[in-house]
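pasting CoB--CoM heterodisulfide reductase iron-sulfur subunit A family protein for the record, 415 residues
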Amino acid sequence: MLDVGRHPKINVLAYSEITDFSGHVGDFRVKVRQKARYVDASRCTACGACAEKCPTKVPNEFNFGLDMRKAIYKDYAQGIPSVYTIDPQHCKVLTGGKCGVCAKVCQAKAIDYEQKDSEVELNVASVIVSTGYELFDATQISEYGYGRLPNVISSLEMERLLSAGGPTKGHLTRPSVIHGEARLKELQKLIKKAEKAENADELAALKKEQEWLEDHVQRYHTAKKLGFIQCVGSRDFRFHKYCSSYCCMHSIKEAIIAREHEPETVSYIFYMDLRTVGKGFEEYKVRGAKVSGLRYIRGRVAEILQDKDLNPVVYYEDTEQRKVVSLTLDMVILANACSAPKGIVNLASMLGLELDENHFVKTHPNRPLDTSVPGIFTCGCAQGPLDIPESVAQASSAAAKAAEVVMTGGRAVAV
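structre below
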């Protein structure tokens, strides 16, 4: 990623969106709206002084609300371009309040509260559509309790918990504990106010909550008993009929890494069918069971409830033993389906692309990178669920085909 940002012949237009598209192969005209960052990218050195001093804290979307970020922020250190952005929804100055701390501490004088959106027009020979995907919203499956039960999370949230650069620095801290620790800090302030106001009833209620949270944080800090539920929203006629392809290996990988981080971890993987079809995937699955103690349970989870200590209780049918079982866990990780991004319908309409029944970009049956428009190619999860190796291979091929159009004077070559 850093190499891309530094390459002299690659111009990265981040924080931008296409507003108009016209033309034909060899002569496409694209209008791009670059959103205002309220930070001068040519001046910003990404020193971080502005974020350090900013007084406004909001939930960090990149870490799924498991920690906080400032109103001026970067999603993560390796992001390109390496420039900070002011959140106009939460910045006190941009919402009509008084602050200006970031402008005062910025030695590069990069803060510009008056910055406006700008428009760029490009003339290009070929286009590659690589829009990625969105995770299926698991709140649609109410029986799993996602968004309601604190210790039921998505596979991407688990990825952030396992990351050394994540909200817990790689420690498997339960979300109920993370939120509990934040609540304890609030309670300390509320208790002081109640004591000053001499409100006995409120003080008693606050101290009771404080006592329970302190006990919960101490007893249940680390998640050691994990459950991974496959096919959440995929292979399901209520939502997506297709298989999301990468979820099985993703869950196995996360379970193995969790064991490496915490040797006492025990992981249960609930599945309909484990589809380990890539090179070395089956061996990886077997190694997970033999070396990392993964336990594979063939069965569909019917419901997830919660006990008094916020532990998820999974009810499922074990189809091999032919019985209904309940299992109390520390944390449940949902393998959410890979869905087409929400904006793909509008983008496809603008570019004149055909989509399939699942709103992925439709490709030629014999040329899997060619779309319905000559000169426009696609790769990765824009055309359907793919894992990283497949996406990288397709990206290389799509880049070669796009370059071929340029080298042949704007003619799409069918092979």
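The domain at 36-116 is CATH 3.30.70.20 (Alpha-Beta Plaits).
The chain has ten helices and 19 strands.
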